[in-house]
């Protein structure tokens, strides 16, 4: 199986993708990854969705709401960041915005005067550190190994603000591979309207059928201010009658908008 994910080599996304694919290629953004799968150029894409410290990866949510793809699995993995540089004398810490945010307290306590620069991925920041002694990167400690080019020291490990840091990735496939089998289901709901109690009405069909919501996230639709797209995850599969019924009720409520069924899937926990 071939998969595309956020590059270059050594990103957390790369580590997650290796769990489901034997050949991994790289893109510069999560939108490019979802697009490559939607256009049938690659069999699978792996994108980060949510982190336990910093919350949603909004670019991924928006890409899932706007491309015809299916979610066929989720991968949950612990994230333990290291500070990597050629030496102690650096002036900038470069990393993915999520990683910088996950290490905010550590950076404020230890490097209050060092600038922070958000780059496309953790591995991209590490790459800069490898080329420039005035830059430090934040990423997986293995990025300092010879396998990735060497020349870097691990200045500190486990620098994320909480020990329990974890990121949830989803595995994206062409829409034709959408499945009803699995213990979780992801939906994107665009009501295209707004009135008191709308969100309550959209969620009640799940509560009434004893279906646990595992996540509700609202994203601006981009159409007008105050207009939202809702990302809803539930702990039930579309193979279950109660789930299909609940989704049909929601579809009836949002007849001026739409419901995208991203599909049902299971969770894989990857430790490394
Ligand atoms: O930059 C990387 O290494 C990524 O795979 C991206 C990403 C993210 O977007 O959340 C993945 C896991 C970590 O939470 C930090 C960064």
UniProtKB/TrEMBL annotation:
A Pfam family annotated for this UniProt entry: ACT
Keyword Ribonucleoprotein: no
Residue segments, region Disordered: 123-142
Example GO biological process: L-phenylalanine biosynthetic process
UniProt superkingdom: Archaea
Pathway noted in the entry: Amino-acid biosynthesis
The entry's keywords: Amino-acid biosynthesis, Aromatic amino acid biosynthesis, Lyase, Phenylalanine biosynthesis
All residue ranges annotated as the ACT domain in the record: 187-264
Residue stretches making up the Prephenate dehydratase domain: 2-174
GO molecular function, one term: prephenate dehydratase activity
InterPro entries linked to this entry: ACT-like_dom_sf (IPR045865), ACT_dom (IPR002912), Preph_deHydtase (IPR001086), Preph_deHydtase_CS (IPR018528)
Enzyme Commission code(s) on record: 4.2.1.51
Protein name: Prephenate dehydratase
Organism: Halomarina halobia
Gene from which the chain derives: pheA
